[in-house]
Amino acid sequence: MKTFASRFTLTLAALGLGLGISAAANADSLDDIKAKGTLVVAIDPTFAPYEYTDDNGNIVGYTPEIMKRVAERLGVTLQYQKMSFSGIIPSLITGSVDAEGSSLNVTAERAEKVLFTVPFGKSVNAVMVRADDDRVASEPLTVEALSGLSAAVKATTAPEQLLKQFNTELKAKNLAPIKLVSVDSVDQTLAALMTRRADFIFDDITVLGGLSKQLPGKLKQAGELGDSQWISWATRKSDQRLNQVINDEILALKQSGELTQLQQQHLGVTFDLPSENFIPSK
């Protein structure tokens, strides 16, 4: 998920940026969005199958299908602004964009800075290895089984942070840590695994499912680790009306069954999603 797969956690330093926030970023912007006729959305389209760029340069996937319907509900044109994942929430907070369209793991820390929409996905992280590698063999999978191995992981994401937590646990048990091979994209994690720079990929289960389709028969999942999280979008806290429009569209798609169809089409899995009480406590 983006799974998942996520996603996908920005550093607290990036989240905490507060300087230079414009006055527009502190006001409800729904009327301005409708007046200009454009919804400008920040996105890092490197998180297949949630959001990614196809061979023709189009931003496609599960979440762009939902965002397209949000723009239709608003009666405006959807305009994506591509950027690195680490810059998305700072750009949102400072008012550089109207909304963000990259899948975010819902966390208590992020909820202090932004206003989450209702979830549209679920994330749980898992381990993927080469099909001929039997070193990760514990059932169920344990953190100890990964001791001394190297992990390909996308930088500044929830999976990377979880691996760092695992290393703290391994150190406490006097076990060798997991070596982190942090890269910029999901495709680079696959390259690191197949060129043997890494022993396994650690990412959302939906993301790993997408990678398996690229190399059928050459990869296998070795199990899940860590807690599951909901996946959502976020708006500025001041943009409660825009947030509600997005919520209304997600819930309408859920009610009609179209959201389930989109999940099956793009993710290969379906989720029973909450509409309230989904933000975890600290």
From TrEMBL:
Species of provenance: Pseudomonas sediminis
Record carries keyword Signal: yes
PANTHER family: AMINO-ACID-BINDING PROTEIN YXEM-RELATED, MEMBRANE-BOUND LYTIC MUREIN TRANSGLYCOSYLASE F
Residues spanning the signal sequence: 1-27
Protein family (similarity comment): Belongs to the bacterial solute-binding protein 3 family.
Entries under InterPro entries matching the protein: Solute-binding_3/MltF_N (IPR001638)
Keywords, comma-separated and alphabetical: Signal
Name under which the protein is recorded: Transporter substrate-binding domain-containing protein
Lineage per the UniProt record: Bacteria, Pseudomonadati, Pseudomonadota, Gammaproteobacteria, Pseudomonadales
Domain Solute-binding protein family 3/N-terminal per the UniProt entry, residue ranges: 38-270
One family name in Pfam for this protein: SBP_bac_3
